[in-house]
Amino acid sequence: MHGDPQGAKPLREAIATYLNLERGAKVSAEQILVLSSTRQALFLCAQLLVDAGKPILLENPGYFGAKKAFEAAEARIVPIDVDEQGIRTDLLRANRSGATCVYLTPSHQYPTGVTMSLERRLDVIHWAAENGCWIIEDDYDSEFHYDGMPTACVQGLDKYARTIYIGTFSKTLYPGLRMGYIVLPQELVKAFTHARSIMDGHTPQISQLTLARFMEEGHYNSHVRAMRKLYASRREVILESIGKHLAGIVTAQRPKGGLQVPCLLEAGWSEQDTIRRATAAGVVLPGLSRLYAGERKQLGWLLGYASLTAHEIESAILCLAKALRGMPSPGSRVQ
């Protein structure tokens, strides 16, 4: 069954309703382009918004998938540091690279987990309007916010229509669904839809219509609420386990939401060595330092917990602790 390259209208209407109610967005179905993934959305942004050799502003540290997408388009990566309030807009304003786009993960910054403050959100909006720039807002796991009320998305706060909003269903439903979307200012809809139609035509129609019905009947909202409660409990388990078994090795940074916990290594511990020793024990540790640009890097790990039960989380942390403290771990492989 062939369909509209922009996406099935019932699904676009359901997404618009959801975003307007749950994320404080200001969206119509005509602004939405249904895609297969966040990476496809980033690829389109890279190809259509940034010319080869031109700069793109990315958070530092930041999401490797965004970096790869813009590098593939031969854009020049310009890192902008992040602090406890999100991207530093003072550095954004001081930047003289001539960049016309900035990529952000404001709900739960990847990988630090910090939530961008309302003041910073408004400042980046004003910066974009003043300079004729685009904001690419990747709201990849905003549904899973556990502490306090979530802040409205940048797109909903942006009265100048300079924000491109990216969302996905792979975090809330399952990765194999291969379904995401991008919300565009009206002036970009035609170009993005045409480019997408050249790439792969459209997202499978049956999947779109099934998801639309799932959302229209309220099942999606119920599912998200249930998963938010489950993931919040798993976050508490992993934080407690890290504090109990890995004290003196790492300090966990408590995120307000998201599906992973950044852990900073204490002085004297090598990121490379801990990853090597964990691998030998059968535990995969994604390092933090690879997500930083420049010489100043935080050493540590990024621990995901969404797919594990409470028992599996505690068992994995205990196994990791034994491996790092030089104790034999049941079932571990000797290097």
TrEMBL record:
Domain Aminotransferase class I/classII large span(s) in chain numbering: 3-248
Transmembrane residue ranges: none
Pfam families: Aminotran_1_2 (PF00155)
InterPro entries, per database record: Aminotransferase_I/II_large (IPR004839), HTH_trans_reg/aminotransferase (IPR051446), PyrdxlP-dep_Trfase (IPR015424), PyrdxlP-dep_Trfase_major (IPR015421)
Gene Ontology MF terms in the entry: pyridoxal phosphate binding
Protein name stated in the entry: HTH-type transcriptional regulatory protein GabR
